[in-house]
């Protein structure tokens, strides 16, 4: 019964999210196709765009307050312009069932990501209450490692790597890149073991 209620609540949240971001649906569907690499050359513009932004930021090197101000200004500008442009260039007749399905997948992914974040926070709060020593040691160790990494490695490089990984993750997951790499690795290991075994058997004969 709780699982049914949870699924029902999730479906309601997905429908509410669809209504809330409906003006963004054309842009989100187009962005989603890029992020999951529906074309094999899509990783190149993703990496190129992110690298260009970080190079420009490194070259300009604005103060923190200026950076935050420009970020929120740009976010506000995008939030104002993009839905209007998407509405003007997209007609209702062009919105197909396939696009609607993709939009629903996007909303479902957003809701599930929110749920996963809430679960992790709830887990940490539960750990803090039941095992405070473990909570303290884990948090202290993580913060120490993070501080050491930030002190020894250039912070812009760390941010570039993190943003790049986040942007490439949907495509990597959707196309099973990890599985392909693991499969190639296991095949190489298997071939190496087989060749080594064959050599030993020949020598023994």
UniProtKB/TrEMBL annotation:
Q: Which InterPro entries match?
A: ER_autophagy_membrane_reg, RETREG1-3-like_RHD
Q: What Pfam families does UniProt report for this protein, alphabetically?
A: RHD_RETREG1-3
Give the location in the cell: Membrane
Transmembrane segment boundaries? 26-59, 134-151, 157-172
Top-level division of the source organism's lineage: Eukaryota
Q: How does it sit in the membrane?
A: Multi-pass membrane protein
Give start and end of each RETREG1-3/ARL6IP-like N-terminal reticulon-homology domain. 24-182
Q: Which PANTHER family match?
A: ADP-RIBOSYLATION FACTOR-LIKE PROTEIN 6-INTERACTING PROTEIN 1 (PTHR20952:SF0), ADP-RIBOSYLATION-LIKE FACTOR 6-INTERACTING PROTEIN (PTHR20952)
Query: GO CC annotations?
Result: endoplasmic reticulum; membrane
Key words, A-Z: Membrane, Transmembrane, Transmembrane helix
| Annotated source species | Daphnia sinensis
What's the protein name? RETREG1-3/ARL6IP-like N-terminal reticulon-homology domain-containing protein
**Coiled-coil spans in chain:** none
């Amino acid at each position: 019964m709780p699982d049914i209620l949870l699924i029902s609540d999730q479906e309601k949240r997905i429908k509410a999210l669809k209504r809330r971001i409906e003006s963004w649906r054309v842009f989100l569907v187009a962005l989603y196709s890029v992020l999951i690499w529906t074309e094999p050359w899509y990783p190149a513009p993703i990496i190129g765009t992110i690298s260009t932004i970080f190079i420009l930021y490194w070259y300009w090197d604005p103060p923190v307050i200026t950076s935050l101000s420009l970020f929120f200004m740009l976010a506000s500008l995008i939030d104002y312009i993009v839905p209007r442009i998407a509405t003007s260039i997209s007609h209702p007749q062009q919105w197909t069932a396939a696009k609607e399905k993709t939009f629903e997948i996007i909303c479902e992914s957003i809701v599930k990501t929110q749920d996963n974040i809430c679960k992790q926070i709830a887990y940490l709060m539960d750990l803090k209450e039941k095992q405070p020593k473990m909570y303290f040691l884990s948090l202290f160790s993580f913060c120490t490692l993070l501080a050491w990494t930030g002190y020894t490695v250039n912070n812009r490089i760390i941010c570039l790597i993190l943003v790049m990984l986040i942007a490439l993750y949907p495509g990597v997951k959707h196309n099973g890149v990890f599985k392909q790499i693991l499969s190639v690795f296991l095949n190489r290991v298997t071939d190496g073991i087989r060749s080594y075994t064959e050599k030993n058997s020949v020598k023994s004969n």
